[in-house]
Amino acid sequence: MNLYEHTIIARQDISPAQLKQIEEKYSKIVEKHEGNIVKLETWGLMNLSYLIKKNKKGNYIHFKIKADGKIISELEKNEKIDKNLLRYLTVRVKKFDLDTEYFKKSEEKEDLNK
């Protein structure tokens, strides 16, 4: 089993319910093919560096996945045809950093430190 970090950027104008459906859809694909989602993070709406399909912002979803390469190709095949997604990226890693929350709001970080 390999370790992957997989990030999806969804359109800025989708509803929170649609965002939840996207998370569930791709989580089910991984689980159906006997993969394991170690961690799922919703980074929220962030600015893009440049316009992508006339969008200035995107909703970021980040998966940490333990799976075979076949699952990643299945994920990406489904993401190519999904009209709600702007971009996706998969990176193979040697180990996961499960402690650091890179995109937590500063108030939430302070609450965690107390």
Account of the 3D structure:
The structure is a single chain. The protein is an alpha+beta fold and 114 residues long. It has a single domain (2-91), classed as Ribosomal protein S6/Translation elongation factor EF1B (Alpha-Beta Plaits). 32% of the residues lie in helices and 43% in strands. Strands 2-3-1-4 form a four-stranded antiparallel sheet, with helices on one face. The mean pLDDT is 86.
Q: Which topology does CATH recognise?
A: Alpha-Beta Plaits
CATH class value: Alpha Beta
Separation of termini? 37 Å
How many DSSP helices?
3
Kindly give the count of domains.
1
The assembly state of the depicted protein chains is single chain
Strands in their spatial order, largest beta sheet? 2-3-1-4
Strand content: 35-45%
Just name the CATH architecture. Answer: 2-Layer Sandwich
Strand-pairing-aware structural class: alpha+beta
Shape: globular
Low-pLDDT stretches are none
Provide mean pLDDT, rounded. 86
The SSE order reads EHEEHEH
Number of strands: 4
Give a quick account of the main beta sheet: strands, pairing sense, barrel closure: 4 strands, antiparallel
In CATH, the homologous superfamily goes by the name Ribosomal protein S6/Translation elongation factor EF1B
